[in-house]
Amino acid sequence: MNGFYTIRINFLGGIVSPGELKDLLLALKGCEVKNIRFGLRQQIIFHLSYLHETTFKQRMEALKIDFYVDSNPHPNVVSSYVSEEVFQQGNWLSEGIYKDIFDTFNYNPRLKINISDSSQSFTPFFSGHLNFVSSSHPNFWHLFVRKPKTNVVEEFGKLIFSNEIGKLAKCLEGRMMEGEEELFESLPSFISEERKEALKLPKFSLPYYEGFNRYGKKTWLGIYKRSELFSTEFLIDLCSLCLATKIGEICLTPWKSLIIKNINEKDRKSWSSILAKYDINVRHAANELNWQIEDASPKALLLKQKLIEYFNKKDLRTFGICLGIKTVPKTEVFASIMVRKRSFGLYDITHTTDYDPNGREIAYYSRWIPGFMLPQKLRKSILEFNRHIADKVTVDDTGKASKESHVFVQKELYQCQACLSMYDEEYGDVLNEIPAGTAFSELSENYCCPVCQSEKQTFQLFNQEQAGSVLA
């Protein structure tokens, strides 16, 4: 019997104890699992041969570890815990408060839930269905809700107290799953505050998350693998070293990497030795680290590697930008500029408003791109981003810096609510043989989405402001 299952295992908030992870890895080693991956939602992902199904289930039951086979029904609670002390310091949110919040989840969520420090930009803010973002008021959180299969984010009018997050999330999940339209009416009593000011988020800037880095009197270590594959042998040794050096937790990041905090200076040589033993490089170029691609997708990974190779030849600057690849329409990928695969070897390139990877409004840079032209088109979209950044501040005749204004044009787009693809009247629909310039109202009632085949009625008007110069 040939073949394998794809298994996912969650670690709440992206935190795992070395002891628990080592026990899991030893069980996987016994089932001949040689490598594992880390997912965008801070999950562990691996392939399990059909031959080891029974043994694996018995071992997971003994370890009391939940797992999901060939599906993702519980997509984990993602958090920015990994960034605390390492990429963000000095505000009221601490690692202890995160853990208190995690303790409020007395159920296994079916919705995507994000818990984010508003002062960091390492983890996504709005890629969940329920997105809790810290406010300036200690121990209170903004709540942004996105209903499943939609791209519209709505903010709740009150701030939520830290210890009420799990309770409120459970209530809202129940209402969403029942299809209720009014999510916030007649909520159970909970501690809250009136929202008096709008949330202010930092400009996106991806910190360099690899290698040895000092903070205070200690060191943290980030480990990324170009192949996305981490050998079970290496991770077992890594867990053993954590236990031997009294490191109590390992952080999984949304960038499919690991971060080990609190490494003492006296143990630095031991950590260098384990990297050398397994020939692990920890100084990749920034233009390789700033990508988000789908989980366990060999096609997306191969495309990423080809695009990076092209960028390196062109010595392309990609600082301050997050690049993404989607080969499956409904996957949630966090990116400033996105490559979206269509059928017949064609691609679209989209970007978010103002190139903020946390943005939900999408504009097209170019559509229906043949594969052989994709590297060049993507390079041009990045050059457009660099010009966008350069044009934000200019120097006037007096020698003073000033902000340059841009002229925006309003454009009507129609969005499929099932897969979020767009119908743009300017371009028509090549796959459905709809010529450019065809108004959406002129389409036949039998028109279907070229991506997911949803009916015309699934599309909704999507008004969006975009710079005229961005469209190619």
Reconstruct the topology from this structure.
Blueprint: E1 4-10, E2 15-16, H1 18-30, E3 35-38, E4 43-49, H2 53-63, E5 68-69, E6 77-79, H3 95-102, E7 113-116, E8 130-134, E9 140-146, E10 153-155, E11 158-161, H4 165-177, E12 192-194, E13 211-215, E14 218-223, E15 230-231, H5 232-244, E16 250-252, E17 258-263, H6 268-277, H7 286-289, E18 291-293, H8 298-314, E19 323-326, E20 337-341, E21 346-352, E22 362-370, H9 374-392, E23 393-395, E24 401-403, E25 408-416, E26 422-424, E27 459-467
Parallel strand pairs: 6-7, 7-8, 18-19, 19-20
Antiparallel strand pairs: 1-4, 1-5, 2-16, 3-4, 3-15, 8-9, 9-10, 9-11, 11-12, 13-14, 14-17, 16-17, 20-21, 21-22, 23-24, 25-26, 25-27
Helix pairs in contact: 1-2, 1-5, 8-9
Write up what this structure looks like.
The protein has 472 residues and is an alpha+beta fold. Among the domains are: 107 residues; 183 residues, no CATH class. The strands form 6 sheets. Strands 6, 7, 8, 9, 10, 11 and 12 form a 7-stranded mixed beta sheet that branches. A 5-stranded antiparallel beta sheet has the order 5-1-4-3-15. The protein has a 5-stranded antiparallel beta sheet with strand order 2-16-17-14-13. A hairpin with a 5-residue loop joins β8 and β9.
